[in-house]
Amino acid sequence: MYAHGYFLQDKWHPFDCKFKHFERNEISKCLTNKRFYIYGDSTGRQFMEYLLKYLTGFKTIEDENENLGPHKHYHPQHNITLFHVFHGMPFRTGKCSSFREVRYVSNELDQLEGGPDLVILLSLWAHFQKTSLFLYEQRILGILDAADRLLQRSPGTSIIFKGANTRQVGDFFWTVSSTDWVAYQFELKLRQILSRSSVNVGFIDAWDLSSAHYSEDDIHPK
Length: 222
Known about the structure:
The protein is of the alpha/beta class. It contains 7 helices and 9 strands. It has one domain: Rossmann fold, CATH 3.40.50. The strands form 2 sheets. The chain has a 7-stranded mixed β-sheet with strand order 4-5-6-3-7-8-9, with helices on one face. A two-stranded antiparallel sheet has the order 1-2. Strand 1 and strand 2 form a beta hairpin. The radius of gyration is 17 Å and the shape is globular. The two termini are 21 Å apart.
C-alpha cells in the first residue's frame, strides 16, 4: 500500500486532506478544559506519554500497573485530564498482572459521561495478532455499539480509532506471529468494519504515517 502523503522537516503532509500542524501553545489551548481518555495498547498510550513530556505541568493522580494502567494525570493550569487503561484481554506482557485489573473498553464506554469536553482514543491491534480475525471483528463491533450508545446519550463526544502501525521484525517467533503482513490483515478488517459502520467515529491512519517515515520500523514508532 502506498502512503497518501509525505514527511517534510518531520511534519506530515497528506495528499488528500488539509492538515493543521499544532505548535506547543496551540496544543495546550486546544486541550484546555478537555478530558483525553485513551483505551488500548501501548501504541495508544504513547499519545499520553508524549503529551506528558511535551506539555510540562501535569500532576499524577493515578499510576497503577505499568502495562495495564489505569494511568491518570491532571494539568491544573489548563484543566486537562489525561487517562489511559488497557483494552482488556488478550494481552501479552512479560510481567504478571492480576485479572482484577482487566477492564474492557465496551464496559468503560458504557460508564462514561461524554460531551464536547471528552476526546476518546481507541487503539486495539497489536495484542490481537495472536488471536483470530473473527474474535477481533466481534470485539470491534461490540466497542462500536458502546460508542453508539455513548454518542446517543452524550452528543459531541469525539471518538477516534488509531489503526495499526508498522513494526520491527525480531526473532523467529515474532517473525512468524507478528509480522507486518499479519498486522495488515487486522488493519484491513478494522477499516472494513469502520467503513460500513454508521457510528460517527474518526480514524488515525498510523500505517500511512509509520510506513512513510524515514525512521526504522518499530512497534512504538519514533
